[in-house]
Amino acid sequence: MAPTALNPSGTSIWEWHRQRKLEPRATAGGFVKKFIFAALAVLGLLIQPAVAVSAAGTGFSVDPSQKAVASLKPCKTVEDLDCIHGLYMQAADGNFEAVKFLNYSDRGIDTDANGNKISRGEANYEFASVNAELETPNHVIFENHLGGAMRLYINPDQSHKNSHFKIVVRTSWLKPQDIQMKVLEADYLMKSYREGTLWAFSGRQATQSGYNGDWNAKMAAGAKADNTMQSFQIFVHHSDPKGSYFDTRCDAAGFTVESHNAPGAGKPMWNYKTKSLDFNIQAPHLDVKGKLNVGFFKFWASDSYMDCAWPGNDLVKASEIVVSIVYENGDTQVATSFVKHNNGQMLVSVSDLHFSSPTIKLTAATNIKTPVKDGASSATPSPTPSVTAPVVPVAKKKTTITCVSNKNKKLTKLVTAVAPKCPAGYKKR
């Protein structure tokens, strides 16, 4: 039976169960604090179901009626859908150039414990390999709960681990309700393509730290991370009223997009008490070397979606939106942030984020209260007043430059800072 109710925090309990039961080592271990984490570090099956020729004979596509997960192959004709259109890498001049396709490794088909037909495969390119999988709408997530998604994984070779890649994919029936990108400097584009959609996702590998287990105890103790991995992962969750990872009530109005490098996170939700849009995120405070674990966060949403999902929010009409990062102990952290809101679309970007369990809060400037300062000392302690945490002002916008290796012009690095400079051995393009 398809799910009909999701938990009130807005996160998907089905996604959470899927991660806990099927992929425990790749996620936050299922810990719960004030919310249920929709753990996003899916490092699961690299898969592909049988593809079906469309009735009109105009190309290939994945049959959505199947209970399956399909490994997408490179497109062979302009008519094909549910396939990899191409992989591209940014050149020294800033343009993206096609990466040569080498071969596709077919790893067979089997059936998982939920009865899903799983096909496995990998597309190999000159500088990277790509695992692209498409869960059909009838795909069983957990205990007969249905949900579809597209999951993309780019694995650059060691010599191109810092390169800027773009992957373009065609789909036939996929409709987004939420996009999650574990990608640094992430960006995306979607547009109509024949009877389907053309998707483009770009960015660089992100560094992600996590624990192998015992998340609650290790987070409470402030233990350093057990592992560090490089991530270029994109998840597009499909909207379907008979079963989806998240609540579908506002999918007709739009969808949300998040990008970050935390192993545990939920969907944004409106906090009616503080009149803020809150996003909870979690990762070890220290990396494997015991150094401060630093992260980033980006969020996209349309005004129409925000008005539907969070009725009464005042961000849509706000002349100024401010960003604050608040920790469980009430401390705030100054981080570089950028807010862009025009043409009915909002983009928020936060960098230099210090991890443990921060809440990123977006608030209309008119709702910010000035913190109450401590008065004269008193012999009789009085209750601590309820005070809105100080707000992090929007800092100067960072810019990104492309740096080219002095020895190999095909090697490039992107440097992002308020006043960016190329590292030794590189020069500005």
Q: What global shape is seen?
A: globular
Q: Give Rg in angstroms.
A: 22 Å
Q: Strand tally, please?
A: 28
The low-confidence parts are 1-57, 370-395
Q: What percent of residues are in strands?
A: 35-45%
Whole-Å distance between the termini?
Answer: 56 Å
Largest sheet: 16 strands, mixed
Structural class: mainly beta
Helix content: under 10%
Number of helices: 3
Summarize the structure.
The chain has about 425 residues and is mainly β.
Set down the secondary structure blueprint.
Layout: H1 13-22, E1 52-53, E2 60-61, E3 68-71, E4 83-90, E5 96-98, E6 101-111, E7 117-125, E8 128-135, E9 140-142, E10 145-146, E11 149-156, E12 165-171, E13 176-193, E14 196-210, H2 215-221, E15 227-231, E16 233-238, E17 256-260, E18 264-265, E19 269-271, E20 276-282, E21 294-302, H3 303-309, E22 321-326, E23 336-342, E24 345-354, E25 359-364, E26 399-405, E27 412-417, E28 426-428
Parallel strand pairs: 3-7, 13-17
Antiparallel strand pairs: 1-2, 3-8, 4-5, 4-12, 6-7, 7-8, 8-11, 9-10, 11-16, 12-14, 13-14, 13-16, 14-15, 17-21, 18-20, 19-20, 20-25, 21-24, 22-25, 23-24, 26-27, 26-28
